[in-house]
Amino acid sequence: MIDPRRLRILRAVADHRTVTAAAAALYLTPSAVSQQLNALEQETGHALLIRSGKGVRLTAAGEILLTHTHAVLAQLERAEAELAAYADGAAGEVSVAAFATGIAEVVAPAMIRLSWARPGIRVRVRDAEGDESLPLVLDGEADLAVAVEYRGAPGADDRRLARVPLYAEPFDAVLRADHPLAAKDHVELAEFHDSDWIGPYPGNPCHDVVLLACELAGFEPRLVHSSDDFRAVVALAGAGAGVALVPRSALRGMELRDTVVRPVAGPAATRRVFAAVRRGAETHPLIRPLLDALADTAEGLPTG
Among 113, 184, 247, 270, which has the highest number of CB atoms less than 10 A from its own CB? Predict the structure, then answer.
């Protein structure tokens, strides 16, 4: 009989590619992870991992078992959800990992909705930028992620996660008020091909959005200044340090000193935001109401 706890360890090793990283994510020691993996190999009668100096990778047998692991763990999540529903699920805590603007746009307003409709559900929020929130969910450190599409992100067909689309928003161009293009009602990215750029660090999904938008416009941006804080990005644009693309929601209520904001014509950059939970957990009586509150909040967001 295969121990499902060992399947969780196998998936963590497959996700993180090293025993040490998987152990850190699971709050275990590397030796404990190795012992559990050895036991799993004995249970299955197959070698599951190929170990090398750079890490580990799954054998063919390991890949077969991993496919079943996704289904088994999703079914266990469903079982926990049904048991919680049987016990009514009227009270409990849900942990959420989300990026800062997502917290302001949908998470905090959804918490207000939830406090009216389901006062017994407590939401604990963790600010997780870039590509951090989805691994936190997969590793069991968060119940729900509010995340942004980015290159390398688990896709909508990923068997480990269930996703709910929330909203999409454009990026606007931010430039100094005396910039030669500031007088235009809208701008085309190709017009900035020779400009210095200000943008987020690699690893931040917005970095990928900016790069992709510029690629579609036919050039690679010359990123001279880097910050993950959009207030700093706007301040640098106002100082004439370069131009930037900033999500529209991040600009709401921001002091735009010495800067102008212009919509982008053509294939504009877009940030697509979604909620994700471990597959099978989307029906959990503590998680489902929060997913619904997030979706309802996103429907009411301004589109311009």
Answer: 247
